[in-house]
Amino acid sequence: MQVPLLDLKAQYAKIRDEMLAAVTEVLDSQICINGPRVVELEEKIAASSDCKYGVGASSGTDAILMSLMALGIGAGDEVITTPFTFFATAGCIHRSGAKAVFVDIDPKTYNIDPSKIEAAITDKTKAILPVHLFGQMADMDAIMAIAKKHNLYVIEDAAQSVTSSYKGKKAGSFGMIGCFSFYPSKNLGGIGDGGMTVTNDEEVKKDLLIMRNHGGGHKYFNEVVGGNFRLDALQAAGLLVKLQYLDEWSQGRRDNAAYYNKKFAGSVVETPYIEADCVSIYNQYVVRVPKRDEVLAHLRENNIGCCVYYPLGLHMQKCFEYLGYKQGDMPETEKACKEVIALPVYPELTDEMKDFTADTLLAFLS
Ligand SMILES: *Cc1c(COP(=O)(O)O)cnc(C)c1O
Fold this sequence. Notes:
Layout: H1 8-29, H2 36-48, E1 53-57, H3 60-70, E2 78-81, H4 88-96, E3 99-102, E4 125-129, H5 140-150, E5 153-157, E6 165-166, E7 169-170, E8 177-181, E9 195-199, H6 202-212, E10 216-218, E11 221-222, H7 233-243, H8 246-264, E12 278-279, E13 285-288, H9 292-301, H10 331-339, E14 340-343, H11 351-365
Parallel strand pairs: 2-3, 2-4, 4-5, 5-8
Antiparallel strand pairs: 1-9, 6-7, 6-12, 8-9, 10-11, 13-14
């Protein structure tokens, strides 16, 4: 049996006709960048994120970068974030000209540990950039309280957590700006690259719109330098089709997670910990296991797709050597890097596939 980590063809098979119609409509209109489908998607993503405004972006990465730029964060500033995340989070801080300051994670949720944030704040700190990892939101009450006390912006990297919630409120609606990715492997995946920012602040929305179009307010007159961070109409059209199914797909992932949790109960496999007041969308189902690298090899030998998110903390990446971190600085991140493994959790998995995955893992570890 083959169990891929993700099977986008299985998803596409169910929506093929709708996708082709949506794409054809854009092609026939020849409105290829921005346009009515982009505006519609911006409104719908904002609404499903408890936000007033959405501003499409060319990727999740560009959503983060243009957020930092729109808030005027750059050289001389510091931005606090987690080292246990996809590279882009800290890559964007670097590219904005600011300095990334890492704060270790809570070992249960893998999200930034708010109790360690205040010690990292200096007079240069401008923002906290929490990541809602694997589909579960970070502890936003604690993070927002610290941000308020120290007058800092919060930018949420919600690339893996579109529509997930914390105390009934959606990802992206807590901070000044929330950032989403529509990379194909995300819960709401495009047919290429795409992303979105959301905000409740009208001025910030205007600044985001300016930033994504080279920083120009009026055509060919620039007050600031931005980039080309625009979203394609084709992406928006495809995403609008998929958005209709997002809640159903996320529920499918939660059901699969519950299925695995039952199978792994009482074993050495440490299942994901979801806070009582969080609803995860399970972009990844990540467990901790002993002998992780052997487990990884064994599952792959058995044609079970699995992956390590993430094998190396960002504080230890070669390109961030200049930040001066060393091994041991982020112990929980470093431990997680050695122990975690993501198993297939996509909604189209069959019970046979889940059984095969879980049983293969349990047999190897027993
Ligand atoms: C995917 C991802 C991004 C980047 O999104 P892209 O659309 O691939 O540019 C940023 N942060 C996190 C946490 C991600 O998972």
